[in-house]
Amino acid sequence: MSLNFPRLMKVTEHDNDCTQKEVSDFMVPSSVGKPFLDAPGTFQEGMEPRMYETMMCGMMVMYRKVMEKQEAPHNKGITWEKYNEHRGYTTPGYVEKSPQVGDIVPDGTIHSITPGGTDSTLLAEAKKLADAAGTTKVILSFVGITCPFARAYCFEDLAGAVQNGVPTLTIYIREAEPCDLFDAGGMHVTTPVACRRRVYWHKTQEDRAVVARETKKYFETWEGEGKCNMWMDGLSDELEAKYEARPWRQYVIEAATGKCTAKLGLAPFNMVGKIKAIKEATASP
User: Fold this and answer.
1) Least confident of 53-62, 93-102, 150-159
2) Chain mean position to CA 169
3) pTM above 0.90, yes or no
4) Which of 95, 121, 159, 168 has its CA 20 to 30 A from that of 224?
């Protein structure tokens, strides 16, 4: 496990994975009667736009200079409206529509990230993976690369938690923090955990495929060359919406039936609990 970083993003008193409401209570503290401190990662209706912030006693500077160069309203920086647009699943009062444990998960088209590749469907590829691995279960992992905590440790730690050879079907989705529209933590461009290359809002399928291919290559630094089975959602974001996956999220399903056996809470919070949930869900292949 990567240092003690998973402990840094704990948002509850308990050590288990967090619920959607617990994430909402953390991100909009005033909704449960707690003070709004106007700090990175927290939001409130009517908040002042954030373009420039510091953390760690000024040692980490978060400057959204790409957003600053955009047309309105993006040039205002982080606002309540931006939060609702890109993090709507955590808006207080939002009712989850994503699959629950015990549900049959929805299917949908997934697109090849290889130029000229053939498209498929989510559940068809999940079954192929399970058959090839000799398992009954598959992890559906919906990912983006702009979440700084995901890049730093979350994805690698979750991959290390998987037991008994349960395979992962990785689906690259809309980015959580494109630097031109919602550089949420301000970490994408100016901090030590900045992306190697700036990732903008995807305007074409090839825009998305380019970043998906780079993300696959990055994942294979710990999964092994050629071992990351990655596809991508279409620009309509159909699967992301069905699974309420942004910024990233994992499900464990029975490949033959599509039945959901485990579901992680919205990321990247309570990673210790998320790792525990994945270990338990994959303990019997």
Assistant:
1) 53-62
2) 14
3) yes
4) 121
246's tokens: 């942004």
Q: Give the Cα separation of 208 and 38 in Å (integer).
A: 33
Query: Strand 168-172 relative to strand 229-232: parallel, antiparallel, unpaired?
Result: parallel
Could you tell me the residue ranges of all domains in the chain?
99-281
pLDDT attached to residue 3 = 41
Q: Are 98 and 242 in contact (CB under 8 A)?
A: yes
Superfamily of domain 99-281: Glutaredoxin (3.40.30.10)
Q: At 140, is the secondary structure helix, strand, or coil?
A: strand
DSSP letter string, 50-65: BSEEEETTTTEEEE-H
Q: How far is residue 244's CA from residue 52's CA, in Å, rounded to a whole number?
A: 29
Q: Is 254 helix (H, G, I), strand (E, B) or coil?
A: strand
Q: Convert the pLDDT of each residue in 157-169 to its tens digit.
A: 999 988 789 999 9
Strands 137-143 and 249-254: antiparallel
Check if the beta carbon of residue 21 is closer than 8 Å to that of residue 30: no
Look at residue 31 and tell me whether its pLDDT is greater than 60: yes
CA distances from 239 to 16, 88, 234 (A): 26, 16, 8
In the block, residue with structure tokens 């291919």: 213
pLDDT at 91: 94
